[in-house]
């Protein structure tokens, strides 16, 4: 992949890599053991369970609502370190076929390396015949599936699909392009789940959230109405949740983990980079607590 190339809409491969290729060892210091880099899901605000349990619950929600635990072919757009696909192979609904084919798209070399290694280690646990996994360094814009999928999941990637300078109509056109491809890639009865951060206030934009611009320079957030417009006629919105408190809690735990491992983080990535992440996690948490940012979870049925 050409690092400098803007491969289409949204953040360039170079911008994505600048963030996600900071290094697996750094992310391991403050993410949980599932290496999940998106909002977890607690039962409710009284649930005091661990971050790892809440991440597993979130993954289970996506497996169940997309149907990824019941179909043999699954696509994860923005697969990160591979946790969702590994869970799709390991956790099947009663009477469901084995997972035959799991495809993950990421733009980060470091994520792809770790995901491939973890999948290879897990393989003996997946039973026989073994699923085929394809972790691709590829944007959704370039994806050409070999066969239709029974389910698609996308968690925490949609935030990178448009740039702050895109006009509102251009943003919606990009989102619609994404959904129309996903629709074409699904079997007729297929579903997808989408999890994304969104502006909580219609008057906010990237300029009002400087810490986001600093850490994700090329990316802009959607508004809920953009997603409803972009899916109209392509998918039925079966469920929509705003779980902003889940992301507020997740950010607070990440910030606390990073504080605890500050010396190791500085040794790995330097004091300035560590400070940038500390600032971003602190302000992100504040953004979700204060209702400036929302965390949307959609269950979408192909029309
Ligand atoms: C915040 S991480 C989330 C990873 C994972 N889904 C999770 O929940 O832990 C965002 C992911 O989206 C991927 N991504 C960003 N833009 C993308 C694009 N245009 N096509 C495919 N993946 C993309 C990144 O490489 C990264 O894997």
- CATH C-level: Alpha Beta
Please state the structural category: alpha/beta
Round the mean pLDDT to the nearest integer and report it: 93
Report the β-strand fraction as a percent range: 15-25%
Number of helices: 11
Count of discrete domains = 1
What's the CATH topology label? Rossmann fold
Low-confidence stretches: 1-7
The small-molecule ligands in this entry are: S-adenosylmethionine
Q: Tell me the overall shape.
A: globular
Which series of helices and strands comes N to C?
HHHEHEHEEHEHHEHHHE
Q: Give the number of DSSP strands.
A: 7
* Helical content class: 40-55%
Structure description:
It is a single chain. Mean pLDDT is 93; it is low at 1-7. The protein starts with 12 loop residues before the first helix and ends with a strand. Helix 3 (51-66) crosses helix 4 (83-90), helix 6 crosses helix 8 and helix 10 crosses helix 11. It is built from 11 helices and 7 strands. A 7-stranded mixed β-sheet has the order 3-2-1-4-5-7-6, with helices on both faces. It has one domain: 3-Layer(aba) Sandwich (Rossmann fold), CATH 3.40.50.150. Strand 1 (73-77), helix 4 and strand 2 (101-106) form a beta-alpha-beta unit. The protein is an alpha/beta fold and 303 residues long. It binds S-adenosylmethionine. S-adenosylmethionine binds next to helix 1 and strand 2.
Notable traits:
303 residues, Rossmann fold, 7 strands, disordered N terminus, alpha/beta, 7-stranded mixed β-sheet
């Amino acid at each position: 992949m050409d690092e400098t190339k803007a491969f289409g809409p949204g953040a360039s491969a170079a911008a994505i890599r600048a963030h996600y290729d900071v290094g697996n060892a750094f992310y391991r210091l403050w993410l949980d053991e599932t290496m999940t880099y998106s909002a977890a899901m607690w039962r409710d605000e009284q649930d005091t369970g661990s971050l790892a349990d809440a991440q597993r619950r979130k993954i289970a929600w996506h497996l169940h609502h997309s149907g990824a635990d019941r179909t043999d072919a699954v696509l994860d757009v923005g697969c990160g370190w591979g946790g969702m696909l590994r869970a799709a192979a390991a956790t099947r609904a009663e009477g469901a076929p084995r997972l035959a084919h799991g495809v993950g798209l990421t733009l980060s070399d470091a994520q792809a390396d770790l995901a491939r290694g973890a999948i290879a280690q897990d393989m003996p646990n997946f039973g026989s015949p073994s699923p085929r996994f394809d972790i691709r360094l590829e944007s959704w814009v370039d994806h050409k599936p070999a066969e239709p999928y029974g389910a698609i999941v996308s968690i925490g990637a949609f935030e990178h699909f448009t740039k702050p300078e895109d006009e509102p109509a251009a943003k919606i056109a990009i989102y619609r392009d994404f959904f129309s491809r996903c629709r074409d890639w699904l079997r007729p009865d297929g579903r997808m789940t989408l999890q994304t951060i969104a502006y909580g206030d219609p008057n906010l934009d990237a300029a009002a959230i400087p810490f986001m611009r600093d850490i994700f320079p090329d990316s802009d957030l959607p508004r809920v109405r953009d997603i409803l417009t972009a899916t109209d006629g392509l998918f039925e919105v079966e469920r929509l949740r705003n779980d902003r408190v889940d992301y507020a809690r997740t950010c607070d735990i990440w910030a606390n983990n990073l504080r605890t491992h500050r010396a190791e983080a500085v040794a790995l990535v330097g004091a300035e980079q560590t400070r940038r992440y500390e600032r971003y996690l602190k302000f992100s948490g504040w953004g979700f607590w204060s209702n400036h940012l929302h965390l949307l979870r959609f269950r979408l049925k192909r029309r």
